[in-house]
């Protein structure tokens, strides 16, 4: 198995810590055959020289990196004949059929109507069901303010009972769709999503620390959440994911180490199998990397934040993009970086990953800083990716 000279990648991670971009960071790069690079720098808590150093056993809140895992669990249900991609969600979850479209406001009174058609499983997998997020959609942000309804990050199931913001199948909008997808899995399997993933994904793939409910020992290895201060520094963030929750959030609830997450990425890189354990068929895995937004509007202005403490605006993507069944897709190659056809996504606390099947490589870089899409961290991510592709072996 080929390996990668770690020196340039180690230097990027050290620079990210030394510059104050991150308190600590871990990264993992894999080929289809094994781990090419594993590195870390910094500590679990910024400015605390007594805090444990970041290492391969450091735990991270994956946040939206959970979405690909929940998507695999849903696609397993499709493979097992329990549901089809065109099955209306309300056929599995009748409460989903209660959701109406928020069609504007009369003062503080929402105008609601029925959707043009029932959203289906494929809509959930591709974020085209008409749902949104309170921290990226101003109508939903107002909805929570006016109604006092909890948001999805509280761990309360009522946080999912928000209206659609448009009819399904018309536009892509980042959303709570994967949280609903997790409930679909639960209804079909007869168990909680965390238990289903433990049995059908985490266990088979040897992801020994992956969990929705970290133990006290795992929490001792969990990096603290930091927030970017006005002067560009880092401070402990006054926010965390709930320890107790009413549902296992398919959109944000998993914790894992970089090493564990690297095993999940390797399985997708290998077509759904790792070390003899198959969690998804090759054909179904291919659908995760297949464009499903043909003709569906994508946001030209990028993603706008309504809660600056949680997320910065994400600018328009500079290359042609799309969405498969559970993965964001890149359709153009940028010289010196990942190749066209790669699948990727990220997590709220500035964790990022991608799967480059053409280069035969997957990678993830993880930290715990708010708000999302932090400029300093994004620059470190770009530096890591450029260093990685410059250092990669001729054949991986």
From TrEMBL:
Family annotation (Pfam families): Beta-lactamase
Ranges where the Beta-lactamase-related domain occurs: 9-372
Protein name: Beta-lactamase family protein
Superkingdom of source: Bacteria
Organism: Paraconexibacter antarcticus
